[in-house]
Amino acid sequence: MSRNALAIAGVFFLLYPVLRPWTDETTTAGAHEAMSSTAWVVAHFLAMIGFVLVPLALLGLRDAVGLAPAAVMWVGTGLTLPYYGAEDFGLHAAATKGTNLLAVTEATRYNPIAVTIFGIGLVTLAVGAVLVAVALWRSGSPSRYAAAVFAAGFVLFLPQFFTPAPVRIAHGVLMLVGLMWLAFSLKPAARVRTPQLSGQGAA
Hints:
- The structure is a single chain.
- The chain is mainly alpha-helical.
- The protein has one domain (2-185).
- Helices cover 75% and strands 0% of the residues.
- The protein is built from nine helices and no strands.
- Helix 1 (2-19) packs antiparallel against helix 9 (165-185) and helix 2 crosses helix 5 (68-96).
- The two termini are 30 Å apart.
- 37% of the residues are buried.
- The model is unreliable at 190-203 (pLDDT under 50).
């Protein structure tokens, strides 16, 4: 379950920039073309699912990394998702209802509270990912190099928003590599089997 969740998250984080329409969103025509498309909705939704899957997977890997990274990343996810929801569904609705799209986009993306919470959420996710890397480096785990790539992807998540499309797609590749590598190098917590006493049945 944990491996699958990390691997799927990696695929989703790659598909997010690959499927997202890249147009000039500073113009009404460009913003409308991107935000009114189904690809816009699907791409952002996949990113949101990716954010949910990562801390969920870390719960299953708690024996290797502890509970702190999962808890921190849950907080980061909770702070990040409202902004993604507004980008995904709010701007899509504005684009399809014929409103002043550029004004709505500006108000949505740069609302002081919204953008602050979004930034704090992504920084918190980065802290959680770094905690994973630190835990695996301290334990000498063979997965420590994978964890370093995993952490780098989350540390760079916020800065990549200020880069052009090719860099953002490259960041998606980094996320895929880090999550896939971590998924298949870490083992989930083993089940503890309770020995049964000979000669006695179950209660």
